[in-house]
Design brief:
Blueprint: H1 2-10, H2 12-17, E1 20-24, E2 29-33, H3 48-63, E3 71-82, E4 93-102, E5 106-115, E6 118-131
């Protein structure tokens, strides 16, 4: 996990967001994200597209680290339901992703975002898994 955590932390997007990889297995991924002022939209809550990116990153890490070297994945769709406002000055956001179904060419994963005890959003993410092109 140490090498994976280091690679996660050194990924430019993850580093800019300040994402932390807390747990990672093919069955469950847990990320933490501390809200900063630059993530807020006009109503002083975290912008929904950023929440979608956070949930997607958790779902990606259910699959990507565990793919064989000759396989690659790409996202093909997502659905997000925003259920509460993510607020600054409160506890960090937590994303937990779990697989719904992982097949040989298609995977569907769900991510749940919470802030403390509050449910913020739930998302479903679909990925195409295929052979890497030479």
């Amino acid at each position: 996990m140490h090498d994976l955590a280091e690679r996660f932390a050194n990924t430019p997007c993850n580093r800019w967001f300040g994402l932390e990889l807390l747990a990672c297995s093919p069955e469950r991924v847990e990320l933490r994200w501390r809200v900063r002022a630059e993530f807020l939209q006009e109503e002083a809550v975290v912008q929904g597209g950023l929440l979608t990116s956070f949930a997607d990153t958790a779902a990606v890490y259910l699959l990507w680290p565990f793919l064989p070297a000759n396989r690659i994945m790409t996202g093909t769709g997502c659905t997000m339901n925003f259920l509460g406002a993510a607020l600054p000055g409160e506890e960090p956001l937590c994303a937990i992703a779990e697989p719904v179904r992982i097949g040989s060419t298609l995977a569907v994963c769900e991510s749940t975002i919470t802030q403390g005890p509050r449910l913020i959003a739930k998302g479903s993410f679909t990925f195409l898994i295929r052979d890497r092109r030479p």
